[in-house]
Amino acid sequence: MLIVTIRVLIADDQVMIRDGLVALLSSAPDIEVVGQAGNGLEAVALAGELDPDVVVMDIRMPEMDGLAATARIVGGAPEEGAAPAGPRVLVLTTFDLDEYVYEALGAGASGFLLKDAPAADLINGVRVVAAGDALLAPSITRRLIGDFARRRRHQRPSPAATATLTPRELDVLRLIARGLSNAEIAAELVLAEQTIKTHVGHVLTKLALRDRTQAVVYAYENGLAG
């Protein structure tokens, strides 16, 4: 069986934490750590040089923080109909201390995990993000996304793009906002999982969203989550 290797860049200003992350992720047969960065500037430079699939990003770093580095690496949402390009970013956060993690969502981060999460969660998180899905730590999902959306909802009206979604696509978007996987959405709507995958793709394309994380944000911003 062919194993597809996920190339990972680790960005954290604490050497001991980087070393621990390298040892942990390297223990997985399908993950290769291709580089380490001690600050955001190094992360941006190495992301361009090494072309990793996933960047595991700390928030608080010198020179350039993880927020600015994420925005530089990801470059925001793709143009409508375009496939996302470049690395995906998985943010490691302490949450209560990292208030500007809200802005990392807007910068295009694909996932968030708490630094005290079990080791297996981090390995799984890298795999999930590399596959193009979103990953939000269950303990922070609703609080994080909900507060982020409340902060930004007043900044712009509901976009006309929502009107392009079919009723079924709206159903799928609402269930994505609840944190359901494709399999769980399929069970909820009594449809095949492949059909749900197709609907998810249509939702992302029509709304010009990079991934499921941005779909969750979009749903909260526009009153489609509850």
UniProtKB/TrEMBL annotation:
PROSITE patterns assigned: HTH_LUXR_1 (PS00622), HTH_LUXR_2 (PS50043), RESPONSE_REGULATORY (PS50110)
Gene Ontology molecular-function annotations: DNA binding
Modified residues (4-aspartylphosphate): D58
DNA-binding recorded as keyword: yes
Example GO BP: phosphorelay signal transduction system
Entry-linked SUPFAM superfamilies: C-terminal effector domain of the bipartite response regulators (SSF46894), CheY-like (SSF52172)
Protein's UniProt keywords contain Electron transport: no
InterPro entries per the UniProt record, alphabetical: CheY-like_superfamily, NreC/VraR/RcsB-like_REC, Sig_transdc_resp-reg_C-effctor, Sig_transdc_resp-reg_receiver, Tscrpt_reg_LuxR_C, WalR-like
Every Response regulatory domain range: 7-130
Residue ranges constituting the HTH luxR-type domain according to the UniProt record: 158-223
Keyword terms, alphabetized: DNA-binding, Phosphoprotein, Transcription, Transcription regulation
Protein name, UniProt field: DNA-binding response regulator, NarL/FixJ family, contains REC and HTH domains
